[in-house]
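Running low. Got one?
___
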Amino acid sequence: MNKLISLTSLSIACLSFFSCNVNPDDDNFIVKTGMAYVIATDNQGQGTITTYEPTSMTVTQNAYYAANKTNIGENPISINFSNKIGYITVGNELNVVNPLDLKSTGKIAGLESPSYSAFLGLDKAMVANYKNNHISVINPADRSVKGKIILPENTFAQNAVQWNDKVYFNTNSAAKSSIIEITSEENKEGVIEDKITRELNIKPNSNGLSIDRMGRLWTMSIGDNDNISAPVIQLIDPVGLKVISELELTNTSPYKPRMAMINGTTEMYYIASGNVFKAQISGTVIESTQFIALENLEPTALAIDPVAQTVYVGYKVDQNTSKVVRFDRNGKINESFETAANINNIGFYTIY
């Protein structure tokens, strides 16, 4: 059985160390807790976390401040969960929190502009550093940094997924974007070494990485800043590390496209041209259909609840405020709530 560990702009949490395939239609399925966390910043870069509990439809603004009587800090990037613990990337550290109330229990320092983290077990995780050309290897158990995986100069890692015994990151530089494969092997001295074993060049400005039920990698490249290269979805075979299908996108929105996928499923969602689309593979062809028409809301953020499979879409209301709208699995609006101006990430923590 393939083991799946994920970290994309959609943070997924289960009470195990691997991503979970859960069927909400199962009569025995009971959601005990399902919280959404919206990581955002105001126009001065000060971070805030808004939580949303869908069963009671309870919204808590500034939830981190409420729990700790201090602000989270400037420009928090993401929130991820492992072993009933939350990890917020902010500044040069991971802020370790209780997922249920966001009470801080400590920090993992010694990082350099961390962005997204892939947790590989109780005592190992890999953290991308978006302003430095390396991936940090940490031990969450003792909250220490154990080493670095060096990337080429001016190359920065972003998202990560695990497939069997290998970890894949998407990376970007001024020259190219790529998918790198990292393998952990024991050297002659009996020490485990993490090293890059393969690399695949992909379309420019890769943003988002997920893995489907068949073990295939999905990534979205949002094109270059001059709009010479169009946004494109690429489907990658990790065995041969090669692109097996791609779909070029049209985007008329001033905001770049974004993708979201529940790892271990077969459908990928993305926002482009002010709407939400659903993409899936048919044979070797990626097919796309419009899922939600947003009527010119110009969405800036997208996430999928990994259990309820509801769709969260964020968009700017005005210069100081964004709103998150929650849609059910059929694309019908359930409810909405406000948050700070700039949404960076929407994560989920679920106990079942």
